[in-house]
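For the sake of clarity, the format in which proteins appear in this thesis is described at this point. Each number in the token line that follows is a code from a learned vocabulary of backbone shapes. One such record is shown here in full, so that the layout can be seen directly:
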Amino acid sequence: MNAERNVAITGIGLSEVGRPSAASALSLTVDAALAAITDAGLEVDDIDGISTYPGAANTGAGFAPVGAQDLRLALGMNVDWYSAAALDSPSQFSAVVNAIGALSAGLARHVLVFRTVTEAQSRARDKQAQSWGGSSGEIHGFWEWTAPYGVESPVPWYATYAQRYMYEHKLTHEQLGAIAVNARTNAAGNPAAIYRAPLTIDDYLDSRVVSWPLRLYDCDVPVDGSVAFVLSRLDDAQRLANPPLRFEAIGTAMAAGGLRDPLDLTSFGAEKAAAMLWDRSRISRDDVRVAQIYDGMSILTVHWLEALGFCDKGEVGAFVEGGTNIGLDGALPMNTGGGQLSAGRLHGLGHLHEACVQLWGRGGARQVDREPDVAAVSMGAYGLGCALLVREN
């Protein structure tokens, strides 16, 4: 049996999400962690593992202000295993994958996985602060090679993908905008979402261009917040407070392509991770009742929908147009909490949180009606990861 099927999500927690928040990064993290532990019906002393991405690596941009050791000390925890993934690991999903491995190997019974960002606070202090590029006074890593050309954020990169895809597959601006409008419609039912006011396709088309053809509402929203999960071994999970949300399959494969080594500007390399997911699964795409698809930029959602096989190549535009298919009562309800475009950028882990909300029926005004029991989640751009979650009754 695949290792991930031995593991389930048993509790979730979300701190205040602000733009900006007055709370410190550590305070936000503690709030989310304690909420997740309580939700699982556990105590702090029951947690014997911690996993996060990427660990404490704050460059002044609020990308990763809290590490595993920070949270361990704050909560007075004694753990048998911990992990902090490097920045060049397979995206934020690596914290989940590492926890699955530790639980399956018997290194821990209950692992707390968390992700904390304070990018809104950082931007309030320094308007030039960028997630990975550092601040206006210091540029880090591969950004040293792009900043001289005016590329200090991923937006111009993604814009080249959007331009090529629109040219090759006749994706229209209205079709691309339907992803942002759907996110905002769903965010109206999410009290934690940053932006909840109605957004029309005309509002989208009238918004300023950030990097052609990407407009303001194609870009996700920097926030301050923390999201946490308790992952447990399945035999332990079945005795806890919530019906376990088992990992049916995960996909983590990386291949040529993506932002750093683009071979095809109509795809960023998610196909291999998606193929791995379906190869490891006993269920099919037709079983998926709700999808939380990564939307760091709207064009990434297009690529993920294709890679996961929900649309054939070049047919995403027709599928999302008007929002009918991706709405709460559509064929594939998508980004039901508002996604990163309206709810705020929690670097993919917000999508995993929303999948759990839907599978446990906690969505309130945004709850999908069909009592979903299978959810697909994708995270990341060129650092890829995807998962299928199944609710165990």
